[in-house]
Structures are given as C-alpha cells and as structure tokens.
Write a structure and sequence with these properties.
Layout lengths: L3 H24 L4 H4 L5 H11 L30 H19 L4 H13 L5 E3 L6 E3 L3 H19 L6 H4 L2 H12 L16 H14 L1 H6 L2
Antiparallel strand pairs: 1-2
Helix pairs in contact: 3-5, 4-5, 4-9, 5-8, 5-9
Length: 219
C-alpha cells in the first residue's frame, strides 16, 4: 500500500518544481526562443541556470558603449535591450552557419549555448556608483562567473540537483572555449583565435551580427 504522506509530499514537490520552472521561464523570456533551439536537455538547462544568475542589467542594457562616437554594432543595439538583441542575432547567425558548415547536432548545441552566454559578463556595474562599463576581457570572465555559480549551487545541493554542476567538465570547457574565440582576431589575447570549424562558426556569427547593418545597407 502506497505511503499517503510520501505521495502527497511528492505531489507538492512536483507542483513547486513546475511553478519554479514557469517563473524562471518568464524571467528568461527575452531569450527563450534561442534557448529552445538547444536540443540537448542538460546543455539547455546549463544555459538556463547561468542566465538566472547574471546581473539583471544584462536584460536592459545597450550592447556597447557609444561614447567614442564609433558605431561597432547596428544602431538599434545602442538602445535599451540592445545586448539581448545582439545575443539574439548571434544565435540566429550560429543557427544558419551551423547548417551551412554541416555541424553535427551536438556541435550546434554547444555553439548556440556559447552564443547565448558569450556576453553575459560584458557589463560590469560599480556597486558604489551604480554606473556600468564594458569589460574588454569579458570573453574570459564568463568562465570565472561559471565557477562562482558552481560554488553557489554546491552550497544548496549535489550534482544531481544542479544544472551547472551536472554538466561534464569536458562539455563546459568546450562551451567556454567557444565563448573565448568569439572575437577572433579582434581579441587582445592570441589564444582566442578560432582554429576548428565550430570555433570559426562562433566567430563568424559574431562578425555577421555585429556588422549586420553594414552587410545589409553597405558602408
């Protein structure tokens, strides 16, 4: 005979988990279509977990500082929400390029994950002044951010309860490498030059998204 108390506890736990998932999905809504392009569930959950921990300013901030008067991005990415718009465009470019280069589904999933996460630490907020700036080393600080999220997750559960901790080190290392190469020759660190096809797809997607206006209208 089933344990009624345990059954009720399981039902409540399942309902709470579903409710939490829906709340999180609403929070991630600006990039939910991009997240859902990832077919591998552990990789998708990893991306969700990372995005849930980022500074909320990411969702509203412009893609780049335009104080120098040089437009490095399409003009609409200098408006509110420009960072998200840029991320969406990089992911769409990755999706198209992945097919053009014949990437396997698992490779495509990793590049899409990297595209979604590649700028999540680009904006740094000064806790004293509230002003923000753009970190030129952000391609490297995503890895540091991931380690902090892992440490936080470790305080509240084991690997089976943490999307970030559960994903293998090999997979997370590949995603972090793809993030580091997204700037290609524009990076200030030579190690981040793309070498293999998946890395080239990541870099080209960044180039296409950043130069979208020039590609479409010339200039």
């Amino acid at each position: 005979m089933p344990n009624i108390d345990q059954l009720l506890e399981d039902i409540v736990h399942s309902a709470e988990k579903d409710e939490r998932f829906h709340v999180e999905t609403a929070q991630l809504n600006p990039l939910i279509n991009e997240i859902n392009l990832i077919k591998n569930e552990p990789v998708q959950n990893f991306v969700r977990a990372m995005l849930l921990e980022i500074n909320p300013i990411f969702w509203s901030v412009e893609a780049e500082d335009d104080s120098d008067g040089v437009d490095k991005h399409p003009i609409d990415e200098y408006d509110e929400g420009g960072m998200v718009k840029h991320t969406q465009r990089v992911v769409r470019a990755v999706d198209v390029l992945s097919e053009a280069y014949g990437l396997e589904e698992d490779e495509r999933d990793l590049v899409i994950a990297a595209a979604i996460l590649h700028d999540i630490t680009k904006v740094v907020v000064d806790p004293q002044t509230g002003y923000h700036h753009y970190d030129p080393m952000h391609a490297y600080t995503v890895g540091q951010f991931m380690e902090r999220v892992k440490m936080k997750n470790a305080m509240y559960g084991d690997e089976s309860q943490s999307s970030v901790m559960y994903l293998s080190e090999d997979i997370t290392s590949q995603i972090m490498r793809l993030i580091r190469v997204h700037q290609g020759l524009n990076s200030i660190i030579p190690e981040t030059i793309p070498v293999i096809t998946v890395e080239m797809v990541m870099h080209l997607a960044e180039v296409v998204a950043t130069n979208l206006e020039k590609i479409l209208v010339g200039g």
